[in-house]
Amino acid sequence: MIVTIDGPAGAGKSSAARRLARRLGFSFLDTGAMYRAVALAGRRQGVDWENPPELSALAAGLRLELTDDRIFMNGEDVTEAIRTLEITTLTQFAADNEAVRRRLIDQQRKFAEGRNIVTEGRDQATVVFPHAECKIFLTASEEERARRRFQDLLARGEEVDLEEVLKKQRVRDQRDVERQFGGLAKAADSIEMVTDGLSPEQVVDRLEEIVRAHQH
């Protein structure tokens, strides 16, 4: 069974999807981590961000491995390195690059073969797994999403300003929606869930209810 969880930045998709997968005994696919890893590789290699073929060529040579809560790039654990505000900002170049997206989509589909998975991202229900048995669109208010991101970055030891986080989030939201290939959109058959005012535990409880209702 494939469960897709799409939604905007800061909606709490990654943590909720990971916990849901654990509860269900499913594998977890963090697609955002894959795009972040490409951005990290680009940053390290000093690619010209205005030259998309350079980044797609670099992505073609990356070996990405995902476990339930870690991501490895060419054998190196980059789980923490991909979560900084700088890499978050640079990830748009990987996400906007159609050649990179097509390559990662192929990897995502391979990951899912023969498995029960919970996968999260922007285009999982619309592009990657349009035939998924259960599709969820997870969202929250703009302010709530920015506040969560801000607290997450503070917890990681980054010096950040809430207004700056909100401003960058708005730019990211716009890019996500306007992206020509793999842009953020709610699939017609997705169930929308708003997480404002809910504890992480309550979010996972509700997600589990939705999935159980779709299991045959």
Q: Would you mind describing this structure in some detail?
A:
The chain is of the alpha/beta class and 216 residues long. It has a single domain, classed as 3-Layer(aba) Sandwich (Rossmann fold), CATH 3.40.50. The chain is 52% helix and 15% strand. A five-stranded parallel sheet has the order 2-6-1-7-8, with helices on both faces. A hairpin with a 2-residue loop joins strand 4 and strand 5. The model has no long low-confidence stretch (mean pLDDT 94).
Spell out the blueprint of helices and strands.
Elements: E1 2-6, H1 13-24, E2 27-30, H2 31-45, H3 52-60, E3 64-66, E4 71-73, E5 76-77, H4 85-95, H5 98-112, E6 117-121, H6 124-128, E7 134-139, H7 142-155, H8 162-178, E8 191-194, H9 200-214
Parallel strand pairs: 1-6, 1-7, 2-6, 7-8
Antiparallel strand pairs: 3-4, 4-5
Helix pairs in contact: 1-9, 2-4, 2-5, 7-8
Helix content: 40-55%
The CATH architecture would be 3-Layer(aba) Sandwich
The helix count comes to: 9
Radius of gyration, in angstroms, nearest whole number: 16 Å
Gap from first CA to last CA: 10 Å
What's the arrangement of strands in the largest beta sheet?
Answer: 2-6-1-7-8
- Uncertain segments are none
Query: How many strands appear in the DSSP assignment?
Result: 8
Q: Mind describing the biggest β-sheet?
A: 5 strands, parallel
Q: Provide the domain count.
A: 1
Oligomer: single chain
Class by SSE composition:
alpha/beta
Question: How much is the average pLDDT?
Answer: 94
Relevant CATH superfamily: P-loop containing nucleotide triphosphate hydrolases
| Tertiary shape | globular
State the order of secondary-structure elements, H for helix, E for strand.
EHEHHEEEHHEHEHHEH
CATH class call = Alpha Beta
How big a fraction of the residues is strand? Answer: 5-15%
- CATH fold call: Rossmann fold
